[in-house]
Amino acid sequence: MGRKFQKKQKVDQLEIVPVDENPPLPPQRKSDDVIPKREKWVNKQRVLVFAARGISHRDRHLMRDIKTLMPHHRAESKMERAKTLSVVNEMCEMKHCNKAMLFEGRRKRDLYMWVSNTAGAEGPSAKFLIENIHTMAELKMTGNCLKGSRPLLSFDSKFDELPHLKLLKELFVQTYSVPHHHPKSQPFVDHVFTFTYLDNRIWFRNFQILSEDGGLSEVGPRYVMNPVKIFDGSFTGKTLWENPDYVSPSKQRQILKKSAKDKYVNRVEQKVQHEATRPINAYDGIDNEEVFDDEDPIATAKILAAIAKKKQQEKEQKTPKSALTKKIKEKQLKAVKKVIDQKKAKVHKRAKKV
To answer: C-alpha angle 294/297/299, rounded to 5°?
Structure first.
């Protein structure tokens, strides 16, 4: 008997798909399916820019200029003065912001600016006195830049040397720089923010980039930040650094008033001294003028001898220096009393009129 040969079944070989290639998408998609998106906007920094009540019109215009330069800002209404600064952390949390820039006015004259990292109220935060404010509308510079465009940040070499400036540099980079692919930003870089450290202050300028070889034209605004303190937390915490050269504006005004007062006192003293030392009688004629009256030499010699004898007698009879100074002091005291009496009389007259 012969063998029975069974036909072998053909096995379908699987195609090996390379790992790098993606499988083809289905031809149809259900409406309930979520479309997977690849997000480009990764750095989601948001800055809450607002002010407390009591700032002047120029300070408000400066805040508006800063808002136009920062498309990643969030606006907020004015904060009441009665509220503590720690409330700002809650406001930032409600607005989904992780940085805050608060403008605080004092006496409608002085402007303070707080820059803080409010993410989890961890800090740090810095307080600055803003000086030499010039807004965009006030300057009318020739430069111009696209609204919402991203800026370059240029820092002075001192920001890499001093430790407190290193911290401020990182804070400024995270606050002022516009995140890449932000919805409100433009995909262009056409202006530069410069931070220069000079005279213990930080000078802020905004320039338009004219050409690639470094041609610049100022846009504005411009202001000077005088650092006061750096805190460990957000608007609270331990003081990490304090400016030893800082003098408050009210103290500066007090010193100026005092110097003006000293000018008045000096003027009164000079007047009193002039009254005390003023001669009563008119000045005498030239010494030895009798010599020129007579032409006879023997007679003139006799006159000169008599004058010399008279001077010698006067020297012997002259009062000592201590008595002379005593007389001068009495004379000065009399003159001072006279001036004081005159002033009192004027005051009494004014009081009677009232």
So the answer is: 60
List the one residue out of 75, 110, 118 whose CA is nearest residue 93.
118
Q: Specify the 3-state DSSP secondary structure of 198.
A: strand
Closest to 173 measured CA to CA, from 195, 157, 188, 158: 195
Tell me which DSSP letter residue 153 carries.
Answer: E
**What span, in angstroms and rounded, lies between the C-alpha atoms of 304 and 290?**
9
Q: What is the amino acid identity at position 316? A: E
Place of tokens 């919805």: 183
Cβ–Cβ < 8 Å for 73, 86: no
Strand 149-155 vs strand 186-198: parallel, antiparallel, or unpaired?
Answer: parallel
Q: Tell me: the pLDDT tens digits for 252-289?
A: 999 888 888 788 888 888 888 888 888 776 555 556 66
Residue 209 has which token pair? 């980039």
What SS3 state is found at 61?
Answer: helix
Say whether 197 sits in a helix, a strand or coil: strand
